[in-house]
Specification:
five-stranded mixed beta sheet, 402 residues, mainly beta, 2 domains, globular, Immunoglobulin-like, disordered N terminus, 50% strand, 1 helix, five-stranded antiparallel beta sheet, Neuraminidase
């Protein structure tokens, strides 16, 4: 039995799929997300949390040490689970429960404490969080539509799209009011506004099997994984300059995609070889193995461990207090970046912003729980910040697009 068939025959909900669904390349939803996605919490050493569908487990590995050993995080509650996304503002994790055909949620600090989310779904095959607007989007394959709702499940509505045959993936960037979606039934990729207006077909009939989408908001690139043709492609947001980013072997089936903008790295999962790979976006011909020996890896979330440093210049006395935390949104942003202290009575004392070369571009004494940074005059690109809260230094990153 080949790898693709193995994945398909293990699907407990295959009988609920539309008759015209092409089972050989059923898009097992894989989403590589970062806790510093559209709503950003302080950065630190990173961990790749990998959802292994083969043994129903959640494991972690360090991306800084390719080939390092895998650590078991949890092995309960992940039966037939896939497509994991993280809400950095609350620490909530959302994933599709393929066995029960529902969206489940838990907290990143306690993945075993799970509750059924309030979203009414049929066969969701891809999830995306719009942190700026606090909305969850999902692609419902059985109902052939894109749905969005508030994080409490209220206000669910269909996003108008072109007619969908076998919808497989979606991606969005709220700062640019852009929504992308793919259909493996007619091998096409579309773009529109978040409301569904201004629909445009970017790839008409030869996208083949676009099972996952990913955007590079700074460079204006849209990537898609084509597991059936064993490759990853990319185009500009307007559909121009199409090119193959990575061509795999017959044994490889690239699926989930994640972009590490800070280091210029594209990560992808491969359920054909049971591994996670990565390559420089500027030199994809030199891919690197991150971890192998997995068991049908179908989702990866990049989580950042807290990176707090005592500020020796602070005259604040040591006292018992909650660990300072900072959230920022939206990310990417086009006009404003809003920084917020997540703990009560812990104001942001000051904020510094740096470009990629380390040049300080901004300094402001704050003295409040929230600070709004006007970025309209900042060039597009990737930026870092350092702030002091409750006598501790917190650092992170954000992207600007115009």
């Amino acid at each position: 039995m080949n790898v693709v068939s193995k994945i398909v025959l293990n699907l407990p909900y295959a009988n609920a799929l539309p008759k015209n669904f092409e089972p050989l390349y059923f898009p097992i939803a894989v989403y590589l997300s970062s806790i510093v996605g559209l709503f950003c919490i302080d950065l630190g050493p990173k961990s790749l949390y990998i959802l292994n569908r083969g043994n129903h487990s959640l494991v972690s590995v360090s991306p800084d040490n390719p080939g390092s050993s895998v650590t078991l995080v949890a092995d309960q509650g992940f039966h037939s689970a896939y497509d994991l996304v993280a809400d950095a503002s609350s620490g909530a994790l959302y994933w599709v429960d393929g066995f029960n055909q529902k969206i489940t949620q838990s907290n990143a600090s306690d993945p075993l404490s799970q509750t059924a989310s309030p979203f009414i779904v049929t066969t969701p095959v891809d999830l995306k969080l719009d942190q700026a607007n606090q909305l969850l989007y999902w692609m419902d394959n059985a109902e052939k539509r894109i749905v969005r709702a508030k994080l409490d499940g209220s206000g669910a509505e269909t996003v108008p799209t072109s007619e969908l045959s076998n919808p497989s993936a979606l991606e969005l960037i709220s700062a640019l009011d852009l929504l992308f979606y793919a259909d493996i039934g007619n091998h096409s990729i579309w773009s529109s506004s978040l409301s569904g207006a201004n629909s445009k077909q970017l790839v008409k009939t030869d996208a083949e099997f676009p099972v996952r989408l990913l955007i590079d908001p700074v460079k204006g690139k849209l990537y898609w994984a084509n597991d059936g043709e064993h490759l990853i492609e990319r185009i500009n947001f307007d559909g121009s300059d199409r090119e193959i980013f990575y061509q795999g072997t017959e044994e490889e089936h690239p699926f989930g995609l994640f972009l590490d903008q800070e280091n210029g790295l594209l990560y992808w999962t491969d359920y054909g070889t049971d591994q996670v790979m990565r390559a420089k976006v500027n030199s994809p011909a030199m891919p690197e193995l991150v971890v192998d020996g997995l068991s049908d890896p179908i989702a990866v979330v990049v989580l950042d461990k807290p990176a707090f440093q005592p500020d020796i210049s602070s005259d604040r006395e040591n006292q018992e207090a909650k660990t300072p935390r900072i959230a920022l949104y939206p990310n990417p942003a086009s006009q404003l970046v809003i920084f917020t202290s997540l703990e009560q009575d812990q104001a942001i004392e000051w904020l510094k912003v740096f470009d990629l070369t380390g040049n300080q571009l901004y300094y402001q004494s704050v003295g409040a729980d929230t600070h709004k940074l006007d970025i309209q005059t900042f060039p597009e690109g990737y930026y870092s910040y350092t702030t002091r809260v409750a006598g501790q230094l917190i650092s992170g990153h954000f992207s600007i697009v115009h």
